[in-house]
Amino acid sequence: MMTVDGTVIDDEDYFQQLPAQTLFIFRLNGETFETGADLIYNVLAAVNNNTLKTSIKIKSFMDENIKEKIRILSSVLDVDDESKKKKISSLRLRDPDWFQGLETRARTKEEFMFKRCQERIRSYMYKTKSDMIKSDFYIKQTKCRKYLDEVFKQFSELLTKNKHHGYYFDRSNTNGLCDEIGTFKCEGAWNQSVCSYERGTGHKINPYQSRESRIIFSTWNLDHWVERSRTIIPALFEASKMASEVHRSINMNYFYELLFTTVNLKLVHIVCHDKGQHISAKCDPNLYLQYKKVIHSFSYADNCLENDFNN
Question: Keywords of this protein's UniProt record, alphabetized (predicted)?
Answer without folding.
Answer: Apoptosis
